[in-house]
Amino acid sequence: MSFADAMITGLAPDGGLYVPAALPDISIEEFEAWASLSYAELAAEVIARFAPDMDRATIDEACAAAYSAAVFGSADVAPLAALVDDTWLLHLSNGPTLAFKDMAMQLLGRLFDAELARRGEKLLVVGATSGDTGSSAEHAMIGRENIRVVMLSPWGRVSEFQAAQMYSIDAPNIVNLAIEGVFDQAQDLVKAINGDAAFKAQHSIGAVNSINWARVAAQIVYYIWGYLRLAPGVDRVIQMAVPTGNFGNIYAGTIARRLGLPIRFILATNENDVLDEFFRTGVYRVRPGAQVVETSSPSMDIAKASNFERLVYDLHGGDGGAVGALWEELARSRRFDLAAHPGFAGLAEWIVSGTSSHARRVETIRRVAVEDGIVIDPHTADGVWVGRARRTSGPLICLETAQAAKFGATIVEALGQPPPRPAEFAGLEERARHVTVIGADVAEVRAVIETVAAGRS
Known about the structure:
Blueprint: H1 3-9, H2 28-34, H3 39-50, H4 56-66, H5 69-72, E1 80-82, E2 87-90, H6 102-119, E3 123-128, H7 132-141, E4 147-154, H8 160-167, E5 174-180, H9 183-195, H10 197-202, E6 205-206, H11 213-230, E7 238-243, H12 248-259, E8 263-269, H13 274-281, E9 283-285, H14 308-315, H15 320-333, E10 335-337, H16 342-347, E11 351-355, H17 358-372, H18 378-390, E12 396-399, H19 408-415, E13 436-439, H20 442-453
Parallel strand pairs: 2-12, 3-4, 3-6, 4-5, 5-13, 7-8, 7-12, 8-11
Antiparallel strand pairs: 1-2, 9-10
């Protein structure tokens, strides 16, 4: 299957995840030469390596349009800011929805559009969001003639700002569904829809979550960018702290490492510590929806990490049968244990983890504001706290998740005043909302998709 086919279809016909048959071969000399490129130029080089089937001019044009000062506020796109203690903050949230998801979605919207126009096809994107993916995907797809979006979010489990960003969109090609449940249930519904091959083909269904390989590929770029901003030569290990719930963001980083960047990762979770438990013990134990803790870093309120399956596949040397057996075990007992697997011990050499808490993120927000004059969001605070707790000697890059404006209540608690907010978002929460609340029921989602596909939305 080509990169373009994997991008358009999102998930395999059986509901499985796509992975590259082989990674591109990038020399140290190429990495070092990339240090002089703009973000758009770097993105084009990386995507072209993963998508040899796509027209290079199309990739260049899409990257130039996506990663521009008009979209991200400056030509730098993802600036690196110095904090105290040899800690650095990689700003990834300067896009139109103030979240790192824009870094991939702004490109995907343009690549989707170009490829669908070339094929003369249309696509119905079905996605799930724990807060930021939804608005980022929707804003990237608004008005695109060949794309319609049905986005599922957990009702009452995202911040007011996040909810308003999604539900205030009034566009004929965007449909918001809020399910009575948690993100994991929304994600399961999306997988169930994609697992029905006939239904998926009938309605030309695709995906924009990080289950879509093209989105992972786009996220690889900012790991390379951040590394090269701090260390232009590929000659020293850089530690990167990454807040994550669904493992998509940090998985993109693991690919950058496999391409040749010497990165050591520090994975940060909130109170929903499924991933931290695995990297400490080797036991992957998913929780039922009722056990998902509602926290002040809601985009990480996830108890079943979709992209983790890709890491397990890599650990098993690309043995899909072994991964399938583990997921059958997971379906039976909600857990499996890889502590004795030969590859697990090696993971600790380049990826460690830790868990944050509400008190820790509030204190970290306060500390960074006082020491560095920067207001960070709760998820980024989880990354900074865990990163500093688990770092070894040497520089630490913390990846930003979103802008603080999206999480006003926690910022007020930490700093005693609301976070700065871009002028275009004034009065956002008071805008009219367009959302339908449904049960966590695949039949209800299917009915909406059929309505949208028939052009009746």
